[in-house]
Write a structure and sequence with these properties.
Helix content is 39%, strand content 22%. With 135 residues, it is α+β, with helices and mostly antiparallel strands. The chain has a single domain, classed as Alpha-Beta Plaits, CATH 3.30.70.1290. The chain has a four-stranded antiparallel sheet, covered by helices on one side. Strand 1 and strand 2 form a beta hairpin. Helix 2 packs across helix 3. The two termini are 35 Å apart.
Length: 135
């Protein structure tokens, strides 16, 4: 397992993020998907995070992001959505404007789950197996 080192911490924090297009409209083509990958990677780097995996379909995308402990997930997600929506609507206006009459791209909600190298059950077993000090 790969760990990151901060000033006063060692960490491995990863999330699986799913973003869905507004009204689940099938508006994402291969060009938009490629551009979204670039936008998400650049935005993550500005947050000292790393986009470790990315893919999607015509109505949603999946991201796996490695991020430092001082980053608030909700703020990172909102920034990813805002930046990508603004740039995609600007750069692919001819496609997006055929589908949406208002300036939207993503739905207001999102899915996020923590992910990593071990399961919650494995962590619980590890914690339970610690030797308690005896007096």
């Amino acid at each position: 397992m790969q760990y990151n080192k901060g000033y006063r911490c060692v960490y491995s924090l990863n999330i699986h993020l799913v973003l869905v297009t507004k009204y689940r409209r099938k508006v994402i083509n291969q060009s938009i998907l490629n551009r979204l990958h670039e936008i998400f990677a650049n935005t993550c780097s500005k947050w000292n995070a790393k986009l470790t995996d990315f893919n999607g379909e015509s109505d949603h995308v999946h991201l796996v992001i490695d991020f430092p402990p001082d980053v608030e997930i909700s703020k990172l997600v909102n920034n990813l959505k805002t930046v990508s929506s603004r740039l995609i609507r600007k750069e692919f206006a001819e496609i997006i404007n055929k589908v949406y009459t208002k300036p939207v791209f993503w739905t207001g909600a999102y899915f996020v789950a923590s992910c990593g190298g071990v399961t919650v059950q494995q962590v619980k077993q590890y914690v339970d197996m610690q030797t308690s000090p005896t007096d």
